[in-house]
Amino acid sequence: MNIHALRLFYYVAETGSVTKAAAKLRISQPAVTSQIKKFEKDLGLPLFTPSGRGVSLTPFGMELAKQAGNFFTYEEQIDEFIEDYRQGRIGKIRIAATYLPANFLIPSWAARFKARYDQIEVVITTTNSRQAFEQLNRHEADVAIYGGGLEGRPENMDWVELFEDELWFVVSPSHPFANRSVTLAEMMKEPFIMREEGSSTRERLFSLCRTYDLKPPQVALQFNGLNEAIRSVMAGYGANFVSSLVVREYVERGLLARVWVEDIHLTNNLAICTRSNEQQPAIVQQFIEICKQYPTEV
């Protein structure tokens, strides 16, 4: 169907006059008349009958005008939806985040984001680094928020680095190493409680052992969540290698104790990752701006 011709017909039907319709559409009256006649010929049905100086709709024309009105109303709604989406007023953002940002940073960011853009749906998935990047690559996430090292990061992603955070060795306050300085070799003889394989912090600890030609520590307990690992250390067993952002409060309250490992100082990089060579939707750009404005708000 010729949508342009349908629109001309609709305006003639609404105004009851070819002259008024032509003026509203800013085209000549003969052009409107010509296209309406061609539209009738294409349809094989008459739309108008002469009526004095004006025109009257045939029964078919009356029904088609109603359907056209519904069609153009829906067209306007679609245009409004597209513009709202383009401007980032509506839509959905899917965030794949590693444990650290998901639990200590994103709640505040998401609350601020929703306060500004309440019509946007925010879906957050907490996972390890490997799976977060896989979700982003598979277009199952619009953005990945990562806490870890810069080494080995995927090359097909753009990174917005927010801040750095120290990595600490922690134990129970009753542990012999509590608040002491030890060598890395001594520390690696302790049993560790850690996240599952794919955790960036776990990988960095093992990489540290390879750098210093040391046997990796025994992973005595393994959890899919960091909070469970920390609680086990607090209960008096093993050690953990973890972001200071996660355990600083526990150390200050005396529930955990730091262990200073000689000549070792590592940091986490907190970063927002998106797929390279893609135009980011307004929704994603708006969320990233919130994160950049309040990078360390916990």
CATH-derived topology of the largest domain: D-Maltodextrin-Binding Protein, domain 2
Total tally of structural domains: 3
Largest sheet: 8 strands, mixed
Global structural class? alpha/beta
Shape: rod-shaped
CATH architecture of the largest domain: 3-Layer(aba) Sandwich
Mean pLDDT: 90
Number of strands: 12
Fourth CATH level, the homologous superfamily of the largest domain: Periplasmic binding protein-like II
Total helical elements: 12
C-alpha end-to-end distance = 57 Å
| Low-pLDDT ranges | none
CATH class of the largest domain: Alpha Beta
Helical residue percent band: 40-55%
* CA gyration radius, whole angstroms: 32 Å
Write the SSE topology.
Blueprint: H1 3-15, H2 18-25, H3 29-43, E1 48-51, E2 54-57, H4 59-86, E3 91-97, H5 99-104, H6 106-116, E4 120-126, H7 129-137, E5 143-148, E6 157-171, E7 181-182, H8 184-187, E8 192-195, H9 200-211, E9 219-223, H10 226-234, E10 239-243, H11 244-252, E11 257-261, E12 267-275, H12 282-293
Parallel strand pairs: 3-4, 3-5, 7-11, 8-9
Antiparallel strand pairs: 1-2, 5-12, 6-10, 6-11, 6-12
Helix pairs in contact: 1-2, 1-3, 1-4, 2-3, 6-12
